[in-house]
């Protein structure tokens, strides 16, 4: 089986590659070769045959040359993220919309070829006001250009699949928590910062109140969603190829309680409360809870508890050690 | 006030131009000049200053030159229709998606310019299965490429409006009935054919059962929606710029009963029942009833009864005479 990962040098892409390396198979089929495409080089792997290709997704010829390898499964994870797509209108549309279109068009142009395409969408396709729990039939009314671009790509994936030009599955990822790495400027960063930084012996800033509720999935769950989507029998999806993934709906207060149970009061004491009205206002427009019934019926499984999310982070990113 | 009508030579465009000619104003403001753009020439008018421009919407330069006139209101009615967009994948995406994008991009590129853009979307953005009455928050899950292209254009209109690059209102038209002209090959054609043809002394074919329910608006209502949308205070729309228009939810049997009341048994006897399973299957995926609460709150008004729709057709298209 040949696998193409668009955005393979990113956080989720890197974890997916590590998973493929550990398993050597994808849904029972041996992985012969992985092509990882990104704007930067993808690190080499020890046990996996992997080519790193760098380039620009908004170049149609680049997309054609990636598709010329006729991968059996394509994971399309690449995106200009929310904050940057909002700050740079042209770049967001060029990469997230035009780039995705070029990729899909290159697939259409290849004769006798109908690969599985797993597309990472986002809960950013939804915008407030919301009902209590957002159903699988709630409309996509995004409040950002990033969410708009993801919603458009979902529609293309769905129509191209209906026409049997490709075999797509769109998965709307919850906010990934605990996100590894350094704190970034994303408005949603604090959801991870308040766990990751205290566990590493650092102070973290909490800009919102503890009753803020949000929808989370761990990095490992995201990888599990991707591999499950790659092997899904898509006739069960019918004409609706885009699925909201299961998440955990927890408040910031519940996140902190879980941190206390796992790591103790000393670690929790490293969270500093610095209210930020601008962030609080943005967060008020974000989804809090879903009823992702279709994904559950199709066998997608999220995290059991926020404690298990924290334990996963300690094990995978901190070598089991809390500072 | 300068008005640009994209698709001005079509059925709705022609009626809109006649309305502007009759009123000489749009929402109280004098109409100084109308540019009608289409693939064919727009007929000249007697009392309205009108330029007919022909060309290809998928040409970015064409869009730029139309926008160079800096119209105050733009009605974007042009589309490759459902059947053709399904038969010709490339053409549908090129005109309905790329053409719309070029138009919006040309507006964005013009400095200090934020026109009202009224976009005719369609109930084809929705696909079965449906709840009893489709709410304003039901998801857009189209079952055709046409519906997909309309749903994508809605998302662009919404995001570009949110960013104040233009001031958009998307209106999802019901099926227009009674559609004037000759019977066409559209699968939905029979909804109009069974009224129009018998009234003109011709036989019409009914391919589905009388319990088929659908969502209709008259040509005059469509024009009323357009002019109301052109004058709407868009701050009332918030971040959701696309609205399902009010329609009449009637069964084919109710359409025929109304025809009998207006025109008598002799006219109804011209309807011939020729069941067509292929059409019946398509129609089963179409919406039947909406709860268009937002549009009603914003002052959009549809038709009172199917009888009044039939009377409008007799008056406007048949000079008051039933054959």
Key attributes of the depicted protein:
homodimer; alpha/beta; UDP-galactose 4-epimerase, domain 1; 2 domains; 7-stranded parallel beta sheet; 3-stranded mixed beta sheet; 18% strand; globular
Please outline what is shown here.
Chain A has about 325 residues and is α/β, with parallel strands linked by helices. Helices cover about 40% and strands about 20% of the residues of chain A.
Structure, described:
The structure is a homodimer of 323-residue chains. The N and C termini of chain A lie far apart (42 Å). The first copy, chain A, has a 7-stranded parallel sheet with strand order 5-4-1-6-7-8-12, with helices on both faces. A 3-stranded mixed sheet of chain A has the order 9-11-13. The first copy, chain A, has a two-stranded antiparallel sheet with strand order 2-3. In chain A, helix 1 packs across helix 7 (219-231). The first copy, chain A, has 2 domains: 2-174 and 217-244, Rossmann fold (3-Layer(aba) Sandwich), CATH 3.40.50; 187-214 and 248-288 and 304-317, UDP-galactose 4-epimerase, domain 1 (Alpha-Beta Complex), CATH 3.90.25. In chain A, helix 5 (145-162) links the parallel strand 7 and strand 8. Chain A is built from 12 helices and 14 strands. Chain A is 40% helix and 18% strand. Chain A has 323 residues and is of the alpha/beta class. Chains A and B meet through helix 5 of A and helix 5 of B.
């Amino acid at each position: 089986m040949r696998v193409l990962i668009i955005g393979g040098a990113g956080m989720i892409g890197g974890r997916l590659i590590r998973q493929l390396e550990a398993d050597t198979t994808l849904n029972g089929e041996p992985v012969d070769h992985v092509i990882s495409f990104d704007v930067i080089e993808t690190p080499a792997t020890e046990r996996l045959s992997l080519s790193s290709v760098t380039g620009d997704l908004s170049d149609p010829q680049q997309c054609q040359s990636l598709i010329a390898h006729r991968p059996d499964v394509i994971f399309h994870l690449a995106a200009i993220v929310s904050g940057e797509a909002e700050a740079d209108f042209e770049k967001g549309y060029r990469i997230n919309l035009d780039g995705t279109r070029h990729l899909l068009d290159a697939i259409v142009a290849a004769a006798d070829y109908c690969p599985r395409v797993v597309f990472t969408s986002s809960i950013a396709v939804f915008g407030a006001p919301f009902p209590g729990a957002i159903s699988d039939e709630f409309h996509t009314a995004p409040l950002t250009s990033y969410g708009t671009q993801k919603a458009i790509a979902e529609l293309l994936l769905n129509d191209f699949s209906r026409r049997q030009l490709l075999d797509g599955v769109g998965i709307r990822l919850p906010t990934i928590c605990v996100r590894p790495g350094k704190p970034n400027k994303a408005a949603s960063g604090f959801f991870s910062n308040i766990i990751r930084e205290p566990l590493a012996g650092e102070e973290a800033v909490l800009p919102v109140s503890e009753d803020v509720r949000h929808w989370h999935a761990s990095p490992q769950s995201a990888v599990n969603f991707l591999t499950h989507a790659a092997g899904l029998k898509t006739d069960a999806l019918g004409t609706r190829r885009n699925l909201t993934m299961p998440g955990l709906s927890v408040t910031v207060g519940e996140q902190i309680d879980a941190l206390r149970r796992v790591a103790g009061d000393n670690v929790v004491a490293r969270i500093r409360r610095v209210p930020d009205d601008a962030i609080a206002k943005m967060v008020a427009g974000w989804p809090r809870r879903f009823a992702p019934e279709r994904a559950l019926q199709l066998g997608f499984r999220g995290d059991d508890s926020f404690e298990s999310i924290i334990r996963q982070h300690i094990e995978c990113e901190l070598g089991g050690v809390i500072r």
